[in-house]
Specification:
This protein has a domain of 126 residues. Helix content is 42%, strand content 0%. It is built from 5 helices and no strands.
Length: 214
């Protein structure tokens, strides 16, 4: 039995028409181009500050204190170095977390005010000082000298806490913060008071760089 296959040449179909550009400026899919319907690529740094701060604060939602301290340590050595927005959010959480421990170590009769934009009560002597100009509102470049001392304290404190949780052989040294509160904190506080009184009297001016005093 012989089977004869009658092969016919393939039918040539016409080529599809090329993609045309919409008159309004938006190209058709699958190659979307710039137009009224295109959106910029979303990045983590493009989030609003309050949402970014909420995300950073949620990293401390652990119930165990040891895990919270590890999260603060990770926040100090890694997360805040991502970009400027992350640095501002992390420093807000770190400073508010370690501020009570910092103020408890202030030696009498020294005072403390590590935040330049803190609201002064009417009864305090600093209530008559003029408010800080807008260019000094950057948390990453503060004109307040004592803020730098607070940052040094929290960087050392978070490390000591994590090491104490990791092993019982680690003992917190009594002199670990001695230089901070015997020398750096009183000197920084005095410089801040001189700047505040000098600005109020008109004999001291702060440059726009944020940390230079003339």
């Amino acid at each position: 039995m012989v089977i004869i296959l009658d092969e016919k040449p393939p039918r040539m179909l016409p080529a599809p028409p090329p993609y045309s550009v919409d008159p309004d400026g938006a190209s058709l899919p699958p190659f979307p181009g710039p137009g009224p319907f295109s959106r910029p690529v979303a990045t983590f740094a493009a989030l609003p500050p309050h949402i970014l701060l909420y995300i950073v604060h949620q990293t401390l939602s652990q119930r165990r204190v040891e895990r919270q301290r590890k999260a603060l340590y990770w926040m100090t050595i890694s997360l805040r170095l991502v970009n400027r927005a992350m640095f501002v959010a992390c420093m807000h959480v770190l400073r508010s977390t370690y501020l009570p421990a910092y103020t408890s170590l202030i030696k009498q009769p020294y005072s403390s005010d590590p935040f330049p934009l803190s609201s002064a009560s009417p009864s305090s002597p600093s209530a008559s000082y003029p408010p800080a100009p807008p260019y000094l509102a950057s948390p990453s470049d503060s004109v307040q000298r004592e803020t730098q001392v607070l940052d040094l304290f929290l960087a050392a404190k978070v490390r000591e806490d994590v090491w104490a949780d990791d092993t019982e052989l680690h003992l917190e040294r009594e002199e670990a913060f001695q230089d901070l509160f015997d020398l750096l904190q009183p000197r920084a506080r005095l410089e801040d008071l001189v700047r505040q009184v000098g600005v109020a009297a008109g004999v001291v001016s702060v440059s726009t760089s944020g940390n230079a005093i003339v």
